[in-house]
Amino acid sequence: MLYRVIDADELPSLAKAFMDRYRVVAPVQKNGESVYEIIESPDDIDLFGPLSMTSLKKYFLPPRETLFTFDAETNSVTDFTQDVQPLVLFGAHPCDINAINRLDTALMEGPYADPYYTALRKATLIVGVSCMPSKDCFCHVVGADEARVGYDLFLQDIGGKFLVSIASVEAANILESACDPRIATDEERIAFREATRRRQEAFNKEIPDIQEIAMLMDAFHKDAFWDELGGRCLSCTACSSVCPTCFCFDIRDELDPSGKTGRRERVWDACTSPQFAMVAGGHNFRPDGRNRVRHRMYHKLNGFLAKHDHMLCVGCGRCVSACKAQISPIEVFKFFEAKEATDGR
Ligand code: SF4
Ligand code: SF4
Predict the structure, then answer these.
(1) Global confidence as pTM
(2) Which of 232, 264, 316, 329 would suit a FRET pair with 175, their CA atoms being 20 to 30 Å apart?
(3) Ligand 1, closest atom to CA 318?
């Protein structure tokens, strides 16, 4: 990994250099909230606002996506014609970079890579940025507080300057053309360490840091806790919509009014939806909130970990804010914290 330092006032030039070559998505302020959007000017960027409630997954896995069109009269389908335009995600937080890494694992790196996701993902550069945790952030608990891979540049704020980690030749060339990157001094390396320590100390200490969460979940799989948690669920699916790592989808054939032509679409789906696990004949493998919420938490904190060595939850805290029933991984951590206290462990 190559490290360089740039001054904070060089940032607009860097963003502009990316904009000259790509569409650039960055965090902007809109109606009092931080959102990721295509920007028109480097001045639009609000790099250090709160984490956007909508994640970056929509740029690789759109909420609604046409896979192909068909014509019943000619019994034909169109070829795969995805509109892929090179993109830069500028200002991705470490949790969101790790979330994209998890999506890559699920959708691009297995034996059956998703061609739609892969095409959009491969046309994207990622510029990460350091952040300070909000009260709902727990990326440090699930091992997603640092982005070690998955970006092209990473900008660590060291006070009026950025220590830039460079991970791709393309991004290095753009950095070189737009800024005056220099080798870090000893003082700047120390400033980097201090910034990292300040961030580690800023996490909400009321969020329990439970070790061996996956093993504990297996041990308490049948506990009444899941009835209580699932009983509260409204099946609104807000948690999955905001989650940067939820990737379940449904496939639907939409017919045009003629009844002869149409398109196959995929749309986001959610395991907290009552019909998600319903099959032909009407049987539902997860008929109640208990089964659905427990399944979601197991996939996030246990099942994906067993298969891929990483939890699927990256601790971004979005579902903590989005869920009106106060259901989130933090509730699971608190349950095990209380268990440990009552069991005297
Ligand atoms: S489960 Fe919640 S905290 Fe974890 S990645 Fe998804 S939205 Fe973020
Ligand atoms: S867990 Fe919360 S956000 Fe998710 S579906 Fe249930 S009520 Fe909605």
Answers:
(1) 0.95
(2) 316
(3) 7
